[in-house]
Amino acid sequence: MVQTKIFAHRGFSGNYPENTMTAFKEAVKAGADGIELDVQFTQDHVPVIIHDRTVNRMTDGKGFVCDFSLAELQKLRMKEDSSERIPTFEEFLHWVEPHSVYLNVELKTELKDRGEIPELILPLLAKYGVEERAILSSFDHKALHAAKQKKPHIESAALIHQAMMNPSKYLETLGVEGIHFKASTLLMDEVAELQEKGYHLRPYTVNTVDQMNQFFTWGCEGIFTDYPDLALAVRKEF
Ligand code: G3P
Ligand code: CA
């Protein structure tokens, strides 16, 4: 059976401000196999790492990420720790390049961003030599499909947040290698069927010991967790 990889969701977000350089660095220090991060674009088309459409929840500013220039965005400070700010995707790649961890790059795209993924995200993965260990994921399956057409060798996974009919047929049409599913949306036999067909299954967000054991038992390729330290301890005993 494969050993399930542990991806630190938004970095080590259980203990540090999510999607910050500290959360990413602490995830590597803890021994996570991979890092999950959320990418979107500033008004001047720079890919930055933040989950929400707005800066309101995480920073001392207010407004939509896409309405800030990079310079404006970088003046904002994280509410949880004023020494932290929103990282750029390139800053992250520059740091992560020497660390041997997998990267799950979640594309938080909107319709207008789709053209920017091939132009602004994919070349950066090549520039930093991380294509082989990167996974592109998105709830925007059209954007994912377009990225796949452009860079077929980069692993891609469709994000889903609810149950769906005939997922394997859908994944085949989409041409992706994996499915990242909300932990409660797929049953064991559905997961097994997809795995038998060779798809990579990775549930989110897996934060309890029971859930961790469940997905380790199911032989999922990976899990996304806010607590990579806990998941590593559970996996050790598994
Ligand atoms: O990539 C898995 C998970 O991060 C998707 O949901 O809302 O946490 O970005 P969300
Ligand atoms: Ca995410």
- Molecules bound to protein: SN-glycerol-3-phosphate, calcium ion
For the termini, the CA-CA separation is 12 Å
Which sheet architecture does the biggest sheet show?
9 strands, mixed
- Determine the CATH topology of one domain: TIM Barrel
Number of strands: 9
Shape: globular
Radius of gyration, in Å, reads 17 Å
Number of helical stretches of at least 4 residues: 9
CATH superfamily of one domain: Phosphatidylinositol (PI) phosphodiesterase
Question: Roughly what percent helix?
Answer: 25-40%
Mean pLDDT: 96
CATH class of one domain: Alpha Beta
Q: Can you tell me the CATH architecture of one domain?
A: Alpha-Beta Barrel
Topology at a glance:
Elements: E1 5-9, H1 21-30, E2 34-41, E3 47-49, H2 70-73, H3 89-96, E4 102-107, H4 116-127, E5 134-138, H5 141-150, E6 155-160, H6 167-174, E7 178-182, H7 188-196, E8 200-204, H8 209-217, E9 222-225, H9 228-237
Parallel strand pairs: 1-2, 1-9, 2-4, 4-5, 5-6, 6-7, 7-8
Antiparallel strand pairs: 2-3
Helix pairs in contact: 8-9
The chain binds SN-glycerol-3-phosphate (G3P) and calcium ion.
Write structural notes for this entry.
It is a single chain. With 238 residues, the chain is α/β, with parallel strands linked by helices. Helices cover 34% and strands 20% of the residues. Helix 8 crosses helix 9 (228-237). The model has no long low-confidence stretch (mean pLDDT 96). The radius of gyration is 17 Å and the shape is globular. The chain is built from 9 helices and 9 strands. It has a domain at 5-35 and 104-237: Phosphatidylinositol (PI) phosphodiesterase (TIM Barrel), CATH 3.20.20. Strands 1, 2, 3, 4, 5, 6, 7, 8 and 9 form a 9-stranded mixed sheet that branches. A hairpin with a 5-residue loop joins strand 2 (34-41) and strand 3. The structure holds SN-glycerol-3-phosphate and calcium ion (CA). Calcium ion binds at residues 36, 38, 106. Residues 9, 36, 38, 51, 106, 137, 159, 180, 204, 224 line the site of SN-glycerol-3-phosphate (G3P). InterPro entries: GP_PDE_dom (IPR030395), PLC-like_Pdiesterase_TIM-brl (IPR017946). It holds the Pfam family GDPD. This is Glycerophosphodiester phosphodiesterase family protein. It comes from Alkalicoccobacillus gibsonii. Residues 4-235 form the GP-PDE domain.
